[in-house]
Amino acid sequence: MNEVDLRDLIASASRLQTKWKAMGFEFCFIGGLAVQHWGEPRQTDAIDETLWTQFGNERPDINRLLYDLVGRILDADQFALINRVLLSQDANGVDVDVSLAAFPFERELIGRAEEQLFRGVNLLICGASDLIIL
Are 58 and 64 in contact (CB under 8 A)? Predict the structure, then answer.
């Protein structure tokens, strides 16, 4: 992992959120950014996000994501198909881990997510109770 300033993570998350909303993706931020919003500050070096794909419909979404992201590992698209997580980086070198959601709970989690003011930026963050379950 790279040592990344939290401001860089937030800026990258905001840029990705704008693009993904325009592309019609259903998603929300989970992981370190959500923990920092709902809980105690902690070190995080990546953006963690969950994206609704459904089973069997992952390939087109992975391809669309890879327009703005680059795989962090060899054959990141194949890894994502098998493991349901795209290990990637944005153009600024910020690590972005995209979980490919397909279970009803994940659909509901994304549906319950709301934009939260996080360090001066509105980000679509999962709810606190969903974060605990994750």
Answer: no
The secondary structure of residue 84, as a DSSP letter, is S
> Where in the chain are the domains?
6-133
Distances (CA, A) of 72 to 47, 50, 61, 90, 130: 13, 17, 17, 10, 27
Tell me the C-alpha distance between 53 and 43, whole Å.
Answer: 29
- In the CATH scheme, what architecture does the domain 6-133 have? 2-Layer Sandwich (3.30)
Higher pLDDT, 133 or 51: 51
The two three-digit tokens of residue 6, written as one number: 């939290």
Percent helix, percent strand, percent coil in the chain, to nearest 5? 40, 25, 30
The one-letter code for the residue type at 122 is: N
Token look-up 């999962």 returns 126
**CA-closest candidate to residue 20, choices 55, 57, 50:** 50
Q: What pTM value is reported for the model?
A: 0.91
pLDDT in tens, 66-95: 998 999 999 999 999 999 999 999 999 999
| Gap between the Cα atoms of 35 and 27, Å rounded | 17
